[in-house]
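Quick question, first post here. What does this chain look like in 3D?
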Amino acid sequence: MKNSRFFFTVVVSAAMVFQACEKENIPRVSTPTLVSGKRTDSVVLDTRVFSDSVLLAILSEEKQLMRDIKAGRIVDVSGMHIEKQNPKKVYAHYMPWFQSQNYDGYWGQHWTMTNRNPNVMDSSGTREIASHFYPLIGPYSSADPDLQEYHFLLMKQCGIDGVIFDWYGARDFYDYGLIKQSTETFMVRLDDLDMDFSIMYEDRVAQQAVAMGFAPDPVSAVQDDFRYMRDTYFIKDNFLTHNGNEMVFVFGPEHVIDSLEWNTIFDVFPSGASPDLLTLWAAQGRVGANASGEFLWIAPDHLLAHDHYYANYFQGSDITFGSVYPGFEDYYQEGGWGNPHQWGISDNGGNTFLETLNYTHLEGADFIQLATWNDFGEGTMIEPTEEHGFLYLQLLQEYTGVNATPQDLQTTLDLYRSRKQFQGNARAQQFLDRSYHYIKNANTIRAKQIVVAVDRFM
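> Answer (accepted):
Ran it through. Tokens below.
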């Protein structure tokens, strides 16, 4: 309910208590004790000890279960249901644009920009990447199935309902074809974990497509991309919908900005079957009656942008998509990409995330967009990092009221690390598949035991 109060507490290494206040009273929280230092082996203290006899018995039981499944005596049902006390729908803005040497054969530009070399490592094993922050698992490939398993299990365990993919059209130029391809590799995992998805379209690709001879004009270029979305993504059962309509986003629009042009673009949809299109805040007028609302984003004036959004930029019937973020610290100048933002927003020891989360909740936004899951170039990621550990995911667990714990997040991290340690070991991977099965079914103790058994005996 709009302006209702919501109180919650969380423990992050040391006690950290916060509460939602009226919007004029910014949340005051104690500074959390974060995981410090590089290459930490553990983010959550797990003191459970399992004997050799217990672990060997578990491996024996799992062998029989795998035989039963193969023989059809047991049906291994897919899906992952997480209980949430807070019904608010939460979606993570996701960047599917990373490549790694180990998986793709080269380091992509979002790890290197123009002057970083991830093959250069310091004495602790930390690679040189184009970011002020370092992923807890190190730099990765978006197309890596182990990475997708890790990311989406973590999302489910902290109450995230789906992802909004940053998407640059259906054509193969620059790295846009790779981004589309990576996006589509996620579909099987999304289905298996019961997660929704949508698309955030970057309309600048339309002008680029024209300049490179792929389309006669920007409107035709956007039409082609929306046809692709319609025929490839909208048909998925788990494409994000609202009141029966597909919901799609445009970051802007910044280049196709005439509402008559958007009327033409929407001719690709049958009458009465147009999607709900959400524009960037204050941009709804550029698409006219084709817009169904606006989404908030990170801005240099921080909470004042939230004030303006809720006061001025939507009507009561429009869809509101609030923005929650941990801060903003781009790497563009250091990475040689130029045109750095002349502003930043400090993470303030976790308080920035809390401020935006509390604000968005109190204003009663229809949905929450986490901006972002993994934009390391702009320093807006909430995925686990060396600097912040599981801080943001633990805060989300408390907000969404999931029946999962920080120890469950640690088990998912342990599973990922074992996947990599035993890469190429088919027998070990079969047991780790069983660990994944148990995490999905909220039996993380069993999942943890299998990972420990694999690490100890394989």
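The two ends are 52 Å apart (CA to CA).
The longest strand covers residues 7-12.
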